[in-house]
Design a protein that fits this description.
The protein has helices at residues 17-22, 48-51, 56-68, 84-93, 122-136, 155-171, 185-194, 215-224, 253-268, 273-282, 297-309, 313-327, 338-351, and strands at 25-27, 34-36, 38-41, 73-75, 102-107, 141-146, 175-182, 201-205, 228-232, 289-293. It is α/β, with parallel strands linked by helices. Strands 3-4-5-6-7-8-9-10 form an eight-stranded parallel barrel, surrounded by six helices. It has a two-stranded antiparallel sheet with strand order 1-2. Helix 4 (84-93) packs parallel to helix 5, helix 5 (122-136) packs across helix 6 (155-171) and helix 10 (273-282) crosses helix 11.
């Protein structure tokens, strides 16, 4: 796709035209939407225990600046701060032309209480979409996604109840396209294979990174179905950063230790591991857009710098070194089933 061609989301007088022309855009599967290679992940706008607190005015400024710089895809969910992310986006987007961006939200994952965390029923799904639209201050979202489908009691519930409910949401004009998200890529494939409802996008997170390239095995299947492929969390939810992940991160201790050692190595060389990880994942083929969590202009500008300017010679050298010394020995490394088993244990304890 010619990067000099302005995307449909370009609005004269709002965007920085030079920045938009510089931005890389890719077609999102059969949706035909041209989305920015770097996307705005609004998970950190949920704040609190998940991603830490942030300055609200600064976060709103980051949303505005991201859009003006040519980022045209935003992803959020009710789960992020139990509505806080959507609510803050609503505040930020009220001053932005609606045709200047594409936005996706989700259904099915909601509360911190393990007993109320997931609900894949038709009634809750329809109710959730209306609530999200109210918080966002919008008449419709571009993509409505089923969040973390691996937590459904059975994938058939997603196929037989949640996805048909979303089909009615699209029919009502409240969304344009339907997607599924999840951690085990095999479960995403299974749902798409079984679904009679047309699925347009698939969101996989932390599965095409310095430590895990599992997504690559499934790309031909997703591409054969005309799906728009979205990848999130190229820094493995903080695992691939000098500072390390939040305490809740589900990775096993041995994996955390390897990543912490790599982070320490980067720190000693004066390099930030997260920049190396993000550069790597944004360079992988077959992915339309990369969701990166942001809640400040400082983070935004660093991400834009990686996209536009790449790595320094020192960073390139260190990236090669950490792959050889740390990551090549453990790849692919993942934490499938750990979160599901932890949730089952919590529910069992609550029910005893």
């Amino acid at each position: 796709m010619d990067s000099m061609t302005l995307p449909d989301t370009y609005v004269a007088g709002f965007h920085d035209e030079a920045a938009v022309r510089k931005m890389r855009y890719n077609v999102l599967g059969n949706t035909g939407l041209r989305v920015s290679h770097l996307a705005f992940g609004a998970g950190p706008l949920g704040g609190r225990s998940t991603y830490g607190e942030y300055d609200e005015a600064e976060a709103i400024a980051a949303v505005h600046e991201a859009l003006k710089q040519g980022i045209n895809y935003i992803d959020t969910a009710p789960w992020y701060g139990q509505g806080r992310s959507e609510e803050l986006l609503g505040k930020a987007l009220k001053d932005v032309p609606r045709n200047a961006y594409y936005i996706a939200t989700k259904v099915a994952r909601y509360e911190v209480d393990p007993r109320k965390m997931f609900d894949f029923s038709r009634g809750k799904t329809l109710e959730s979409v209306d609530h999200s639209l109210k918080l966002l201050g919008l008449d419709y979202v571009d993509i409505i996604q089923v969040h973390d489908i691996e937590f459904a009691p059975d994938v058939d519930i997603v196929v037989d109840e949640t996805l048909p409910a979303l089909q009615s949401v699209v029919a009502a004009g409240k969304a344009r396209y339907i997607g599924v998200t999840g951690y085990p890529v095999s479960v995403l494939k299974k749902a798409i294979e079984r679904s009679n409802t047309k699925v347009d996008t698939v969101l996989s997170y932390t599965r095409d990174t310095l430590i895990d390239d599992t997504l690559k095995k499934y790309l031909p299947f997703f591409q054969s179905k005309g799906l728009g492929i979205i990848h999130a969390a190229g820094v493995s939810m903080g695992l691939l950063s000098n500072g390390g992940p939040m305490p809740w991160h589900p990775a096993p201790d041995n994996l955390k230790k390897v990543c912490a050692a790599a982070g320490q190595y980067c720190k000693e060389r004066g390099v930030e591991l997260a920049r190396l990880a993000l550069h790597y994942t944004m360079g992988q083929p077959g992915i339309a857009t990369h969701l990166v969590g942001m809640n400040s202009r400082e983070i935004l500008n660093s991400n834009l710098d990686i996209l536009n300017n790449g790595l320094s010679d020192l960073e390139k050298t260190v990236l090669q070194e950490i792959n050889t010394q740390f990551f090549d020995k453990i790849k692919p490394a993942h934490w499938e089933d750990i979160e599901i088993n932890n949730l089952k244990e919590k529910l069992k304890a609550l029910n005893e």
